[in-house]
Amino acid sequence: MISNLDFYKNKLKEEETRLEKELGTLATRNPENPEKWEPTTPELNPQLSDDSELADKFEEFDTQFGIETALAEQLTSVKKALQRVAEGTYGKCEKCQEIIDPQRLNANPAAIT
Question: How far apart are CA 2 and CA 91, in angstroms?
Fold first, then answer.
C-alpha cells in the first residue's frame, strides 16, 4: 500500500479539475452521458465563407478534436485512479501486482504499471 495516499489523491483531484476546466474550453458534456465529452463544432456558414476560410475552420476543428480526445482519455485515467484509491488498490501494478515506484507516481499519478 502507498504510504502517503492523501498526497496522491489530492494530486489526482487537482489533475481532474484541471482537465475538466481545459476540456470545457474545447468541448461540452454529452447531456445523455455526462462522463463523455463532445467537441464544440465551429460556426460555419458555407454560403458566406470562401474555400480558404472553410478549410481553416475544418483544420481547426480537426486539431481541436485531437486535443479533446487526448484530454478526455487523460481524464478517464485520472478518474480510474481515483476509483482505485477508493477501492484501496491504488499504487499496485496491474500486471505484476507489485507496488509502483513512488517516482513514477509522482510523474504520473494515474499510472497503472
Answer: 6
CA distance 74 to 19: 8
pLDDT (average), residues 51-68: 78
CB 110 within 8 A of CB 103: no
- Residues 64, 40: contact at Cβ < 8 Å? yes
* Separation of alpha carbons 93 and 112, rounded Å: 6
For the segment 13-58, what is each residue's pLDDT rounded down to a tens digit? 999 999 999 988 888 787 787 777 777 766 666 666 677 777 777 7
- Nearest CA-CA partner of 61 in 29, 45, 39, 46: 39
105 with 2: CB under 8 angstroms? yes
